[in-house]
Amino acid sequence: MVRTDITGHDRDNRCAVTLTGQAWASCFTTAQGKPLAPKTQSAAGTEMMLSRGLPPALGNVCVGIWKQLGPRTFKLKHMAWNWDANGNFVSVFVMDVTLRIDRHGTKYTCTYSANNLTLSGTPIAGEHFEGNVRGTKITVD
Asked: Which domains are present in the chain?
């Protein structure tokens, strides 16, 4: 949660924004395309995302943890289990993200670095990815 002064402004004297209790539509920009991924964060420092990058049978539910680095800036560690077409657990996906929310609290941009790891935690050759993410807040209206 963004720490604010009594006027509700962050240290940059802009309108206070928060990552928690929000739903976001994320768009990953990579050579593989731009899958949409709805996600949400809790005040307890956890997050959940449904990825359109994989079919459900291969593991499209991701969880993670986050912490605030500064005004409107957050670090996330995002994790998922990967399965093969036969339902066998085959690898762990780990993505490190630095996220910055705009001063209006309606959009964000990120950079990420991701790896698929063997069951013993060793990075899988050719399974390292880096890129950018942008997101837009989803509202009830």
From this structure: 25-138 (2.40.128)
